Amino acid sequence: IKYHSLFEGIITDVELCPYHLMYNRRAWYVLGFSDVHKSIRTFKLNRIKELKSTERYFVGGESFDLYDYLGRAWSMIREGRIYNIKLRFLPMVANNVTEVQWHSTQKVRHNSDGSATIEFRVDGLREITWWILGYGDQVQVLAPKVLRNKVLETAKNMIKLNQQI
């Protein structure tokens, strides 16, 4: 395939051995072994600029298990480190948030003030940070401190960016 990587900013030729096709967050992805990266990678379908089938066969895809591969990622980005996340959602959104099973490790406690405390064990912080920011001033990051600092830093940058207008 010829793949436009937003991260690398270039179009790369990749020989891909596809293992799994997946729909996630309003987009299609193919997961498979990349000869360029020498590992299993995720490719967004709409970034594939050219596709050519070869007559070559590959082995290894039969044993691929998507759930084992994704592990405890919040969605689909594994970062290689597990964090114990603890969040407090204010009463305005608490019921809405707790009626959804967001992650397989989720533990919910409804508090007497109408708020809810939710705990997760998640691989990586990037994706859950994006999710937390979507709740704006209705969520507090109780743990870990590194996640709280990440959310605070992003919020400060948002304020700075929007004050410039």
UniProtKB/TrEMBL annotation:
Protein name: Uncharacterized protein
Record domain WCX: where: 83-158
InterPro entries: CBASS_pafABC_assoc_protein, WCX_dom, WYL_dom
Originating organism: marine sediment metagenome
Pfam families tied to this protein: WCX, WYL
WYL domain residues: 2-52
